[in-house]
Amino acid sequence: MALVLVLVLPAGLISFCALVGYGLGTLGRVGLRRADRQRWLRSSAALLGAVAAAFYAWGLLHVAGSVLDAEDGGTDSSPLRPCRTPGQWERALSVVDYTVDYLPLRFVCETKDGGTYAAESVPGYVNPAVLGFALATAVSLGAAAFESERPGGSGPAV
């Protein structure tokens, strides 16, 4: 489980940097005033995707911290620290294991009776922000594709 986090977290950070570079580089290559609508849409899609990748990486950092906290043994390690929810101590006492869900991003505690619940390790704004920026990216990409197919559009962009 920790191995997947070690692979996905750098991928999110690399995606962020690559998308920002593409988005700003595409506009910078021709200049802001000379850029056509399709180029603006593709650049905005890349920048919106970069923001989505940044929010996802931020949530992954929280999940990775929870995994490290859960794997830490010794004094005060039972019940798992990330599974301790204020006001629900009895539920935390029945936790036997954990898993990580990547979509939506969350740290899931598994109880003795087979039930599960999401720990409050990922900030509440991360998953909605990732979804919102990913949808905005898809809309911008769709608009750019539509713009290239229009009879008066700029045609295939290089």
UniProtKB/TrEMBL annotation:
Keyword terms of this UniProt record: Membrane, Transmembrane, Transmembrane helix
Transmembrane segments: 6-28, 40-61, 125-146
Keyword Transmembrane helix appears in the UniProt entry: yes
Name by which UniProt lists this protein: Integral membrane protein
